[in-house]
Predict the structure.
Amino acid sequence: MKKYIKKHLKTEKRIVKLLYKKGFLKENLSDLGWEYLLKGKKGRKRKGNVYKFSDWLPEIHFYTQDYWGEYDSHSIIDHFADLLWFENSKEQDDYGLPLEKQMSDKQLINYLNSLTTKVNDSKINKILRVSKE
C-alpha cells in the first residue's frame, strides 16, 4: 500500500473512531461500510512534464434508502464536516453557502478531541477493519 493511502486511511479511521466516542454515530452501525473512491493525484515532475495518475482511496460510507428502494452512499466525514460548516457559519452569500473555509482533517480532529467522551466501548473496531483484497 502506498504511503499517502496509508496516511489517508489512518486519518479516516481516527476521525470515525472519534465521531463514535463523542456520540455522533449512535445507531445503525451495520449501515456503515467501506467504499473505494477514485481520486486523482499529481505525479513527479521530470523534465518539465507532469505525469498524472489516479488511485483508489478507501472511505467509510453510510447507506440510505430512498422512496423508490434505491440505496445511496454518503461519506461520513464529508457529511459531518458539511454539517459543522453550515451550522457554525456566521456569514452567508446570496445562495446560502457559508463564506468561511471548511475544516481540514487536522482541524476536525482537534475539534472532536475538545469535546467530551460519551461512549467508551469498542464496537466501532469491527467496522474499522479493512479487508485486504
